[in-house]
Amino acid sequence: LLTAISIERCVSILCPLWYRCRRPQRLSAMVCALLWVLSITVIAMVTSLCLLHEHEHCRVALISMYALNFLIFAPAMVISNVILFIKVLCSSKRRQPKRLYIVIFLTVLFFLIFGVPLSIWNFLQQFGYSLVPTQVVFLLACINSSINPFIYFLVGSCRRRCSLVSFQVAFRRVFEE
Fold first, then answer.
1. This model's pTM is above 0.90
2. Boundaries of each G-protein coupled receptors family 1 profile domain copy (predicted)?
3. Is residue 90 part of a domain?
4. pLDDT tens digit string along 35-81?
5. Is the pLDDT score of 119 beyond 70?
6. Domains: count for the chain
7. What region does 83 belong to: left with phi over 0, alpha with psi -120 to 50, or beta?
């Protein structure tokens, strides 16, 4: 879903007229539904193969799942967010970058820093490599799972200067844009 959000935000910035006038209304819902179906299918396949003790097929399915995660989805997020970031920086001379773009950029950045290492570690585990301890990788994954509310709070509470406000006000400010 982060990949879909990143690509959609990037397209909305690069092609604003097409995005507003020609983009199908239900495109986001269809893309998210397809991603959920893909995810459920892959997880069901991996689970069934691994529970049936089909070790070689299970291993291939796991490798495919991890490869899909960091060879397809992560690069798409990186590319679209780099484009988005460059575009926001270029346009920030005229006006301040919108908070929503900052939230998306930070969310994806922290996902790449804290979430992708688990996929890479799992992928390398299938080949017998272990570069870092298990605890480090799972700590990074836990940080990834819990960092988004802090991003929303910090970005939502910072206008000209940072001030502490309630979570409700911070969330409202972020999502108003």
1. no
2. 1-152
3. no
4. 889 888 888 988 888 898 888 888 888 888 888 877 888 788 788 87
5. yes
6. 2
7. alpha
Count of alpha carbons within 13 Å of 68, Cβ hemisphere only?
Answer: 11
What domain range is 167 assigned to? Answer: 132-176
For residues 26 and 8, the answer to whether their CB atoms sit within 8 Å is no
- CA separation for the pair 149, 4 (Å, rounded): 20
Mean pLDDT calculated for residue range 85-110: 70
Q: What's the distance, CA 10 to chain centroid?
A: 13
Contacts 24+ apart (CB under 8 A), 36-44: 42/68
* Pairwise CA distance, residues 156 & 82, whole Å: 22
Determine, yes or no, domain membership for 46. Answer: yes
Burial of 177 (0-12, 13-18, 19+ CB in 10 A): exposed
